[in-house]
Amino acid sequence: MSTDVQQLDRVVIRIAGDSGDGMQLTGDRFTQETATFGNDLSTQPNFPAEIRAPAGTLAGVSSFQLHFADHDILTPGDRPDVLVAMNPAALKANLADLPKGATIIVDNRDFTERALTRIGWNSNPLEDGTLDNFIVHSLDLTQLTLDALEDSGLSRKDAGRSKNMYALGLLSWMYSRPSEGTLKFLREKFAKKPEIAEANIKAFKAGWNYGETTEAFGVAYEVKPAALPSGQYRNIAGNLALAYGLIAGARQAKLPLFLGAYPITPASDILHELSKHKRFGVATFQAEDEIAGIGAALGASFGGALGVTSSSGPGIALKAETIGLAVSLELPLIICDIQRGGPSTGLPTKTEQSDLLQAMFGRNGEAPVPIVAPQSPADAFDAAIEAVRIATVYRTPVFLLSDGYIANGSEPWKLPDLSTLPDLSVEFPTEPNGEDGEFLPYLRDEQTLARPWAIPGTPGLEHRLGGIEKADKTGHISYDPDNHDFMVRIRQAKVDGIKVPDLQVDDLTGDAKVLVLGWGSTYGPIGAAVRRARLAGYSIAQAHLRHLNPFPANLGDVLAGYQKVVIPEMNLGQLALLIRGKYLVDAISVTQVRGMPFRAAELAEMLQGVLSHV
Amino acid sequence: MSEENGASSVPNAKTSLGLKAKDFKTDQEVRWCPGCGDYAILAAVQGFMPELNIPRENVVFISGIGCSSRFPYYMNTYGMHSIHGRAPAIATGLSTSRPDLKVFVVTGDGDALSIGGNHLIHALRRNVNLTILLFNNRIYGLTKGQYSPTSEQGKITKSTPFGSLDNPFNPVSLALGAEATFVGRTLDSDRKHLTEVLRAATEHEGTSLVEIYQNCNIFNDGAFDHLKDAGEKGEWIIPLTHGEPIRFGKNGDKAVVRDADGGLSVAEGVAADDSRVVIHDAHSENPSYAFAISRLSQADSRLSPMGIFRSVERPSYDSQFRAQVTAAQATAGGDDAAFKSLLHGSDTWTVASAVS
User: Across the interface, do A279 and B333 touch by the CB < 8 Å criterion?
Assistant: First the structure.
């Protein structure tokens, strides 16, 4: 039969099922096909903290959302145009997010009275009119998959597992995705179990053919490739980009990288990734706890390596004392905080920006630590290199403040030209620096205020460091009041004096009276909201902070240039507190702590509310 | 440094460096209380360092918090006075990334066994190249006299006016329970014995833990007097020498014997040819034997086996850690081309120059 091909400029698809149904894998593959096709894209996985919550329950629903378009986009999308629901719970958990007119593809296999009652549905939504406002394709995906794999020799249970590939095949047909990559991927993933590989490929093709040959799907869609800046691209998730950025930073600094870490969601992927790359001089140490992870990293830094530790909020709390020691020792150290919902265990698999003040102040004493925050998954690569620069040049611990949304989300990444990365090479002193031929471990560089990084094994520079207050220059124990006052202030001055690029403001018309200021992963939603406000005819300026400590030198001037400053954050106003305190600006704090990114539409509405009152 | 062999990866000058004890002293005033056992240990360590013939710059002392943890300030080597309990973790990062360094950890009973208990057992089970000197005075000195995890039960201190309730740790038993490959015990005032145990500990590949009984003359004075008194000590010190029968007592008639049920105990009036007498075997693969020796103090807390309980060969964590890196580098280079290929991954696409 002939199929219409309809042109779309953007689509948001959400695939949802049980945590064991392979939804993340299905989403990843569809994303990869979409990337290869050349659309711009942005993704958002959403999964429960439980590894395998009971099947068929709301708690066990795992989903993956992908936004792709023929133009550059900034967020994974607010509301899905298409929902693929693999069971009743997946339908129920996601239904409220769907706009009227959305398409629902649902596996009707498990819509039994028992299964429906379990999730609080008294009648069958496929029959009782609940879905009247949607375009519904109700299929027995499980049976279709089993039929397709009848001759595969697999048990019903094993064959049924391929239903995610059946669904992927159907989706791939609907959106005209290239399938070669997925077929290659399946052959490689199941290289040791060729019968499973073949079953998955067969299911995928059966799903594709179902779309092509069934009347039910009269329309296929096409979203043209996006006009991105020219170059070579790949799709990349934030944790992977961050890990690669750390390796790149260490290479630019010509230092071995030593990661000391303890597994924690959503940071563990950094440990997993770095542990694969020993050939690049990367050593990884899975420590007995969070404290040992950072301790070992600091020990490695003392020995002349680039020490790195990775964690999330609860782990950072445990590391606080060691971060204070690193401040006192003035040694390079990178602390990756992949923020998640808090307090305490909070929402381990959800995102939040609520560790900003912990990073800023979460230590005893005056213990300033620079903070660098990536704004999107691909940007984590550059942010990591910037953190390495600050740590090595200024001999200081540095926070790399990412979050769960950046960590697990993905987007196209224009591959960097390695030859353009900054030279970060470090010189370890080999000669005494004192007037009398002695070594002064706390004699500072006049420009950077950094102290010499003299590493063990260097003859003549033997010295002792410690967490007790040190005398200026000599580093000897000192309880002298004036010395302590001096040392506290000079450590602060060193961090305050870190050179960071000026804040760039996006103010197209130059006549905006309202500035939206953000940091971290709100970049996408803020950008999308700003576009909407501009389309509605408003002038509005946008600026996004990468450096949160110290702030860019021009930040005060930028803020002074606008009547209103709006600061959206996924916390209760932590950046707003800092901005108000430092610049005496009556910033409007817009906050949300739902464990999810802002919805661009809601943010746009709020911004327009402010704009209409200026 | 081609040969990765634990402690032997540290450069050991072929010819004498001519170092003297005074070369290991710093210009810092030593600030322990007059009469503290730490002075004797410091003098013994400084006196013993030249023997190692390791260049000073290749020696690092890392400590935690407590009286004993001031030690690094007094050693003219590299050093770090870190935070409470964490020295083994910090030292692990340093040692694994620098095969050319001889890394010592100086710690106390509170630092190593209370706040830092976790790091200690994990360093021991991994067998990191560290020599850990655990100064045990059975009291908290720096915080002025609270009971410690090695204080005897019922101890009256500032924080336990009605007596402590906690059952104490025996540090040697604890280390052996973690399957430490080298465990020794010695006494601050016996310089010769201290030096012998330290020498063996330093030469050991992997983690060596030496418990040093140390007198705190301010808050727990005389805790080990029965092991120092010339007339009495022979009755309480159970000397451990590999390959020798374990006999002691004024007349040599006390001995560690193997009971009918296989357990060990101290017997008195043991004849010279008694076949029950245990021949000390520090190299026994099974840590149960050394553990049984360490438990002899249970019968009478004054009894104290001294010397090397256990010294067995097992590859150090460090050498295996670095071997993985070396092997990975030998299999596939880590040059720019390889890194570029890593960044590119398997699925890339090209966007041509923008049309229109």
Answer: yes
